[in-house]
């Protein structure tokens, strides 16, 4: 278990963090294309609904899936599905554009994307709980880097394909196919990284259980795999299965699960829909790229700051979460009122920066502190519950954003 293994583990969890959100960020950075393909439909508000309802459904299924399928099956399977979906979305969209049936077809595809993405993200979140805390931070930092990667790819695509004076629908379609194909390739790299990582001694030593009968020595890490293992502890099936255990783990870590829930409700009330309403003077495609880039950069900074575990405690996280209610004022006021400074480009991006920093900090701090409240294999349940808090917050925030869909910027 040398330093090389540690570096590989760091690379692996960073890559998987990128992989878990690459699909959603691909959709987010392509909103201008989808808006033109489905005129009259506010895709910035409607697309997230399909994805986040799927997340809620997946959250109900994840515990049962975790009992029947190994981590590898729960990671590789969704990655295959997601890579196929990403490659096919722009092609399907170009064929069904400007039709109601086409819109609902795409919503169905996005539901599948959301379901597969949540199974993947929850599984990696459970897996990383078996490793030292620094890997949790790297995994969560990777989710922020996913946005930056897609921001960069979209910027390159715009510069390459929209360099001419006239930008046609065909030009944008070719641009999006190029951009989504790269995102699909990244997910394929995540598959390869997983198959390499599970063969390492570092992975095997932290998982502590080897299925001796398998030639590739893959650790299944399903609940039933822990039965009969003599490591001086109760089996994971005894320790972590059942509603009673989930309730107990929730009671122990509830402060941080609820902080994640509230944090992501606050975030997705404004992101991306209301955030993109102002400033109106920017061209929409560049506004998406620049605003999401600022968000992702400061989200990563917040997650990095939270790596310093000694710098905060439970009260810090609770106060930070409560303080974010101020964004209900700062985001809405710049849309509906003409107030000096609050309606400047500088304030718009400053507001997004603080918004993103607090989101990243609360996310990582909660994911680190939640599992600290429990012992042994219950840490995986804490990881699952933390992810449920996060994804449920995203879904509720998305629905809470709907009343603001018709909010019109002042003239």
CATH architecture: Up-down Bundle
CATH superfamily: MFS general substrate transporter like domains
Radius of gyration: 21 Å
How many independent structural domains?
A: 1
**Poorly predicted residue ranges:** 1-5, 209-241
Report how far apart the termini are: 63 Å
Query: Which range best describes the helical content: under 10%, 10-25%, 25-40%, 40-55%, 55-70% or over 70%?
Result: over 70%
* Number of helices, where a helix is a run of at least 4 consecutive DSSP H or I residues: 15
- Helices and strands: which structural class? mainly alpha
| H/E element order | HHHHHHHHHHHHHHH
**Approximately what portion of the residues adopt beta-strand conformation?**
under 5%
What does this structure look like?
- By secondary structure, this protein is mostly helical.
- It has one domain (3-404): Up-down Bundle (Growth Hormone, Chain: A).
- The chain has 15 helices and no strands.
- It is globular.
- The model is unreliable at 1-5 and 209-241 (pLDDT under 50).
């Amino acid at each position: 278990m040398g330093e090389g293994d540690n570096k590989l583990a760091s690379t692996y969890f960073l890559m998987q963090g990128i992989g878990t959100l690459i699909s959603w960020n691909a959709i987010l950075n392509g909103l201008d294309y989808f808006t033109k393909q489905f005129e009259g439909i506010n895709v910035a508000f409607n697309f997230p609904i399909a994805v986040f309802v799927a997340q809620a459904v997946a959250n109900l299924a994840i515990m049962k899936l975790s009992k029947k399928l190994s981590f590898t099956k729960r990671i590789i399977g969704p990655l295959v599905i997601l890579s196929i979906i990403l490659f096919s979305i722009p092609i399907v969209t170009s064929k069904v554009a400007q039709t109601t049936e086409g819109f609902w077809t795409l919503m169905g595809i996005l539901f599948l994307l959301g379901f597969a993405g949540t199974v993947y993200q929850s599984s990696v979140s459970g897996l990383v709980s078996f490793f030292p805390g620094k890997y949790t931070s790297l995994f969560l930092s990777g989710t922020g880097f996913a946005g930056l990667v897609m921001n960069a790819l979209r910027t390159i695509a715009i510069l390459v394909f929209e360099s001419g004076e006239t930008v046609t629908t065909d030009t944008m379609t070719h641009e999006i196919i190029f951009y989504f194909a790269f995102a699909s390739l990244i997910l394929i790299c995540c598959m390869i990284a997983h198959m390499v990582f599970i063969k390492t001694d570092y992975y095997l030593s932290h998982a502590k259980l080897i299925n001796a009968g398998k030639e590739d020595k893959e650790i299944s890490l399903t609940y039933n795999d822990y039965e009969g293992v003599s490591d001086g502890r109760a089996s994971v099936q005894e320790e972590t299965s059942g509603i009673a255990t989930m309730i107990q783990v929730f009671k122990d870590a509830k402060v941080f699960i609820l902080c994640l829930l509230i944090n992501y409700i606050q975030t997705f009330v404004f992101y991306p829909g209301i955030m993109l309403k102002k400033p109106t003077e920017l061209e929409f495609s560049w506004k998406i790229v620049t605003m999401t880039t600022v968000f992702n950069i400061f989200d990563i900074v917040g997650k990095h700051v939270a790596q310093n575990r000694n710098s905060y405690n439970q009260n810090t996280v609770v106060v930070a979460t409560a303080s974010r209610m101020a964004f209900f004022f700062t985001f809405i006021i710049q849309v509906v009122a003409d107030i000096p400074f609050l309606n400047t480009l500088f304030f718009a991006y400053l507001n997004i920066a603080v918004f993103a920093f607090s989101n990243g900090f609360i996310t990582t701090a909660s994911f680190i502190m939640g599992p600290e409240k429990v012992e042994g294999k219950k840490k995986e349940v804490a990881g699952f519950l933390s992810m449920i808090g996060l994804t449920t917050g995203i879904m509720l925030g998305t629905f809470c954003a709907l009343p603001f869909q018709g909010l019109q910027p002042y003239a």
